[in-house]
Design a protein that fits this description.
The structure is a homotetramer.
Chain A: E1 3-11, H1 16-26, E2 30-39, E3 44-52, H2 63-72, E4 78-83, E5 89-94, H3 99-109, E6 116-122, H4 128-133, E7 138-140, H5 148-161, E8 166-169, H6 178-183, E9 188-192, H7 204-211, E10 215-222, E11 232-239, H8 246-269, E12 273-276, E13 279-282
């Protein structure tokens, strides 16, 4: 089914739901899902509406401008209009750890993810054969302290060439530059291997072990310039015990990481995520 | 804040959200929450809308009839209109096990439940002193095989006298009659001490022990004539291990029971529950 | 590190732990892990002990007979002695659904499973290319109502040829015969796509949808003659809501299935599972 | 059943389990539970053994010295010997928030906690009537910036008078002094209302709201001089969403707090907790 999805944010006022739903109805739209949220502290209104496009009497290309003219302007809305076709294009960045990548490839192969994966980019060549067995091109771009700029330029060229919409860092063990991030604002999803804000930084499982926590976790978030501080999309946890060694924490954690990352990808793909002031609103 | 809450169900058609939200807006209603659900298999539409009443230009008593005339009739809606005042009145039925009752009393005392508790009814006198310490009248009505009818008549009289809106069976170890249930359709909440539909009946922890399950649970549901088969409101689970004896299963389970029951009470109080064909839609 | 693992069950008596640990110490064994469980209702004692083999003064082949002579006989023990080398051999049976298989292959590739996978057997050819990309032989053995006996004979021949120790049914959509099971008692692990004993049978997600449960689950169990009734090794659950369609329940459930199955495989591989009277004792 | 429980820690060596279990057997002890843990990084061995005392041929008062002479000295053990009688005495400190206190009182009333509660101490008088309805003395000791020393002296005198073994801070909103803590080393259990080490300090739910986390938690830990940094006994979490306000986070969190604290109390009472280097080993 061809769907349109509208994500809205604006100062809260009376009549928004009424006007938006009347707009959709007036052009014969069949509303499939509607969610709204009012942040009373900030005085902000957020809304997501999805409707069937086939019977809709506005052409795909007209919708945004008509909506702006009839509704958006009146309420000073920021809005984004998405369609579930053509499928968005997702690049996956990976290093050597395969668990998140394989989880994504498996779901994609099973038809669970409504996305095209035009390429996988890695700073190691290890995972090339299996990625290619799944029918996906693999690009090996080594990264070190001296070539980081050129490596990112090469990555960006590939992303542009394949018209990539968003990027998933599937345990990609490199910090991406602020410059790189500016090309994909709120469109780079990272999986951090801890329950943020606990244990920021490079070795969270070691830190968790040292502190003796009874639960570990993982956090999927949009990448912003400040490391591990971007808007949180999803978090999951798992119970651990005193006898778990660091390698065991890593393994238990990896199961959490892959589930958390895949959920975040799903929310992003379904256009269920709004971001505001470094927080996310997830209409699941 | 004075609020009105509207719960709607009707055959699915275009324009319902639009018409309902326009209705609320046209009388100057500030929508606080709106949720909707379409059951595509049944072709049914469900909606919950909450709005501020203070600025609303219809009088409290006019709303239902106006809504029926302007909207309800057109879409063949079944709808219910609720207000968050005066507080609803909840009776609690209990036997000897105190964990669910104390959990409810504690929450009520802490101001977590927007409800009045005019009475607790029990077939045992044990818990009377503590219930009364919480300032709530306690009625001891013994029940046995020979006096069940008169006991229920006595209960019903008390419930009527105290104008009780709904009943919570907080591990009340008696089966209530079909006749009794008819006085409170979808207004009796029971906590069953298993993850239904596994382990219906009287001794679910024993059955769980026998089967060697690794997880046990509890189910809060509306009471219908068929035992343990009413619409499920909430379920929770807890992990158990081979070394847990039946008394330990009971204790672990009781923690699950009280949390599950309290969640169900909250949903019911917040008018977040719709029932249709023995299932619930919970707009949390 | 080379390890020996001893699994014991016998009638409960005083002195068992003392005698077993003294036996290990007397031959210079360094105990790594020891767990015990007494089932007071059955009057049974269960124990698992793991120790380093390198410094142990008994030869690998002598241990069982010495233990029987010095300890086992005295306490009427049933015991099994395992070593963590050579790696056990695990066959995976699969149909068309790939999620459990891919999860296993991914973990194996990442070195998480101390097991050899000499072959994957399927009644469909679909997954052959990817299995082979992971370097594992794939055998396509079609099964239908008329050839079931010969298909199982062919499977058994392959399992024998590859000296398979145990079998994982990774959503293998065929019922295996009692005759087949007798070749692998408590050595066939199945994943059932429900929280048993709720929803036995072929379409548990449909049944869960019909009943309107708020939590779904998966159960890994050893296969016995009675369908879906074997000893439960592990169970996991996930929360669902009224708006989840059956396909969504299936997807949410598949995530639970793969995690549950992989945990069960780990327990089995680590020799942490004892079975007694259709229940398991899991020393994790 | 009268039980003895032995908690041991010492440098790891061969033969400890063998010697300890032989000791117990030699005096006719029936071992009920035995758990051990080796911290390979620290080279430390930890053990817990529980046995029936009725048939034990050593007198209660002789056990410790005999064990020290026969076993402890040889392995340079630190050990503690506990009995499940007489019941330990637990003091509860509380301020105005009642949820943890009521949970403890409810469990105690239901016979779930093998402990005496000789007194509740509070810096507010609010909860006095209900505590007394449960039959427990309530002491109101106001605390402010100028009287902290004398208040603690008064508290200590009461604790001494009632021969209190350990203290539970059930959302007691005061920081206790280092001097006070020294009277009860690893015998003061606090519930912190966040998933430590995330959100230390006074307003964790506000901080969690600001950061936009998707999961909140609670941490029960022994109190040490460094605030919120003592050994973690138990942690639990709950899922939250973007629409949850801070008061809702508080309520959701309070459910987690009370469950977490009660679990920690249980572990402590069952003598299942060993502490080493600011971490706990929990033999549950």
């Amino acid at each position: 089914m061809n769907k349109a999805i509208l994500l809205i944010q604006c100062p809260d006022q009376k009549g928004i739901v009424s006007d938006v739903s009347r707009f959709l109805y007036s052009y014969n739209g069949n509303i499939l899902e509607v969610d709204q949220h009012v942040d009373e502290e900030m005085g902000m209104f957020f809304m997501r509406a999805a409707w069937e496009l086939d019977s809709f009497s506005l052409k795909k290309d007209e919708i945004a401008s008509r909506f702006e003219a009839e509704i958006g302007k009146k309420f000073q809305m920021e809005f984004k209009l998405h369609f579930n076709f053509p499928k968005p294009k997702m690049a996956v960045f990976v290093s050597k750890l395969s668990h998140c990548l394989f989880d994504i490839l498996g779901r994609h192969h099973a038809g669970q993810l409504e996305v095209d994966i035009p390429l996988v980019i890695s700073n190691h060549a290890d995972l090339k054969p299996i990625v290619e067995a799944f029918g996906i091109p693999f690009f090996y771009i080594p990264v070190n302290t001296s070539n980081k700029d050129t490596a990112e330029a090469e990555q960006l060229a590939l992303l542009k060439e394949h018209r990539v919409d968003f990027i998933v860092l599937a345990r990609y063990m490199q910090v991406v530059s602020a410059e790189f991030i500016r090309h994909f604002p709120n469109r780079i999803i990272n999986i951090h291997h801890s329950f943020l804000p606990a244990f920021v930084g490079a070795r969270p499982y070691h830190a968790a072990y040292e502190r003796g926590v009874k639960i570990i976790g993982a956090t999927a978030h949009y990448v912003t310039e400040e490391l591990d501080a971007g808007p949180i999309i999803e978090q999951e946890v798992a119970r651990v015990r005193h006898h778990n060694t660091i390698p065991e924490l890593v393994q238990i954690g990896q199961d959490v990481e892959k589930v958390t990352l895949s959920k975040a990808i799903k929310y992003h793909l379904d256009r269920k995520v709004l971001t505001f002031k470094n927080k996310t609103i997830i209409f699941y």
